[in-house]
Amino acid sequence: MSAAERQHNVAVRVGGELVERWEEYSIECDMLNPADGFRVTLGDWSKRVFDLVRPDAPVEILLDGTRVLSGFVDDREWVTSREGTMLSVTGRDRGGRLVDESAPLVTYAGLGIQDLAEKLTSYWFPGGVLLDNATNRRLVRGRGAALAKVSKEPAIIATKHAPRKVNPGESIWHVLQTFLAEAELLGWSDAAGEHLIVGKPNYDQEAQFAFFVPKDGSAQRDRGNVLSCSVKDSTGERYSKIVACGAGRGDSADYGDRVLKWRGTALNNPDDADGVGKDFSARKLLLVTDDDLTGAGPAAVRAAREMAERDAGGRALALTVAGHAQLRSGRVPTLYAFDTMAHVEIEALEHQGLYLITAVSFKHSRSGGEVTELKLVPKGTELRV
After folding, report:
1. Quick one: pLDDT band at residue 83, thresholds 50, 70, 90?
2. Burial group, residue 372, by CB count within 10 angstroms (0-12, 13-18, 19+)
3. Burial class (CB within 10 angstroms; exposed 0-12, middle 13-18, buried 19+) of 272
4. Which of 10, 19, 188, 307 could bridge 266 with an S-S bond, Cβ 3.0-4.6 Å?
5. pLDDT digits (tens, 9 = 90+) for 330-349
6. 207-234+314-378: in CATH 1.10.8.640
């Protein structure tokens, strides 16, 4: 597909001006990655455009007029040869600043998740912290697109935290990630660069997209709308049984009972003492020790969290599809976006189910045309930062 035949228009807005006609691009939007990135390449360039896209210039990436990423230019590269000239620009959204910058050395004692996140990130996200993705999800799907029905947004508990020392030089994201992991939450930037979103994936919504992968020689091959599909099932980094243990020494008068009580267990199959019989044919045990576990309750929570983090990699689905949107209902195609649901049917595996889109990569090249690469997980997967 030539540049003139593209169905979608990618533009970079910098300095109040729109720069279009990008010959190649890659735009990454991933709810599990703190910093989304982009790379755009322009063949027909001018000195004015070169000056606009200087390193560290604030930029917005628009797809068919819909803002999908806001951040800063990291690198600008100009190359000339006998074949012509090329101008490439790479950058990241505002989450990149959280990854790069050191955390302020202030006190976080007693703060709930929202207040703590705002204290850490307010300089880069002037709109504050949102506890659900509803507004952002609606905007990034494009103007006029039909919206999926949502039963509810995930409930976020504004937990309190004990004092924690921040070491000089720790990045903002490293500090924030520690607290998010403890609260079993994720964090990502909204497309406008105004808000940091702290929350969970929303599985309580109808499927916005549908993908059908026909088998070879299928009578339903005309239904197929997937260029390539990969399904990876794994137990490599997973366990049938995880036991979290308090590592306190105790004393001569109180040792065995206290330590034995500071244990929590998580099982892949709750009907078996070793968690065998569901995803595992034989026991696979992990022991986790933690000096901060001070009771059976916290130990059980830690064991469950360790299990969920590993089970998130149990099944990974990757799809490559043509274009950047799908028309399933309404009159306007819906742009692909993370934190949306999709119905997936794979004929050769006799499998169908609901999946959450966790990452979207919009790409165009002169050789490969216009495609979108999607990463998905089964409905209900416990995702972690």
Report:
1. confident
2. buried
3. middle
4. 307
5. 889 999 999 999 999 999 99
6. no
Domain 3-92 coded CATH 2.30.300.10 = yes
Question: Which pLDDT band, with edges at 50, 70 and 90, does 247 fall under?
Answer: low
C-alpha 165/C-alpha 159 separation (Å) is 18
- Find tokens 């039909």 and name the residue: 146
What distance in Å separates the CA atoms of residue 16 and residue 242, rounded to the nearest whole number?
Answer: 54
Strands 340-346 and 263-267: unpaired
Residue 64 Ramachandran class (φ > 0 left, ψ -120 to 50 alpha, else beta): left
What CATH architecture is 97-199? 3-Layer(bab) Sandwich (3.55)
Report domain extents, the chain: 3-92, 97-199, 207-234+314-378, 241-311
Check residue 43 and give its pLDDT: 82
Provide CB contacts within 8 A for 344, sequence distance 6+. 210, 211, 213, 317, 319, 351, 352, 353, 354, 355, 376
User: What integer pLDDT is reported at residue 160 of this predicted model?
Assistant: 59
How does pLDDT run across 265-322, given as a tens digit for each residue? Answer: 999 999 999 999 999 999 999 998 877 777 778 888 889 888 888 888 899 999 999 9
Residue 250 falls in which region: left (phi positive, over 0), alpha (psi -120 to 50) or beta: left
Locus of tokens 């966790």: 358
Angle value at C-alpha 203, between 197 and 207, nearest 5 degrees: 110
DSSP element (H, E) containing 72: strand 66-81
**Kind of pairing, strands 285-290 and 241-246?**
parallel
Q: How far apart are CA 118 and CA 275, in angstroms?
A: 40
Burial class (CB in 10 A: 0-12, 13-18, 19+), 360: buried
Q: How far apart are CA 114 and CA 187, in angstroms?
A: 11
Task: Kindly report the pTM of this predicted structure.
Answer: 0.89
- Per-residue model confidence (pLDDT) at position 337: 97
DSSP H helical ranges for the chain? 47-52, 95-100, 113-121, 134-140, 172-182, 256-261, 296-311
